[in-house]
Every structure is written in structure tokens, then in C-alpha cells.
Amino acid sequence: xxxxxxxxxxxxxxxxxxxxxxxxxxxxxxxxxxxxxxxxxxxxxxxxxxxxxxxxxxxxxxxxxxxxxxxxxxxxxxxxxxxxxxxxxxxxxxxxxxxxxxxxxxx
Length: 107
Fold this sequence. Notes:
- By secondary structure, this protein is mainly alpha-helical.
- It has helices at about 15-25, 30-40, 65-80, 85-90, 95-105.
- The longest helix is centred in the last third of the chain and has 15 residues, at about 65-80.
- The N and C termini lie far apart (about 35 Å).
């Protein structure tokens, strides 16, 4: 009988090695990458670059609550980082969100 996490375990079968590799493969997110991700969910065509306004609140940059919810779902899926409702209150600028995501990726 072979162990599920042994050397014969199928890739992606939840083996310890697979989870270590997955964690080490996810690079930190940048302001530019967050901006590109979020632009898919903004309805206002007048965008200011996150790199030029990293501390400006998302709502002032044209991102509504629906855009933030969609972004959080995407971040959870792509990066494995969950942003709770309490955390959402604190990550209301591009810089704060990038720092939050990258802090959790390093943890």
C-alpha cells in the first residue's frame, strides 16, 4: 500500500512537495500587475496609473465595490490570498493591497 504523500503520489494529489512548489512559484504582485488585473472590472474609462497614485483610494480611481469584489475573487484564485471583510477596510489603496497580498505570499 502506498502513501498518498509518498514518492509514488500523483502530481497534484495534495503531496507536501506539490504544495511547497506551488508556494514558491507565486511571485510577488506589483502595482502594475494589480492595475492590469483590476482594469478588467472598472467601468469608468478614465484611469489613473497605480504607479502614479499608489495611495489614492480605489473609489477615487474609479473602482466601485463590485470591482473590488471581483478583484478579491481573482486574487484568491490566482494567488491563494483571502482578503476578509475586515481586511478589505484596510486595503483601500493600491499600495495597501499590494503590500497585503505580498505579506501573505511570504507568510
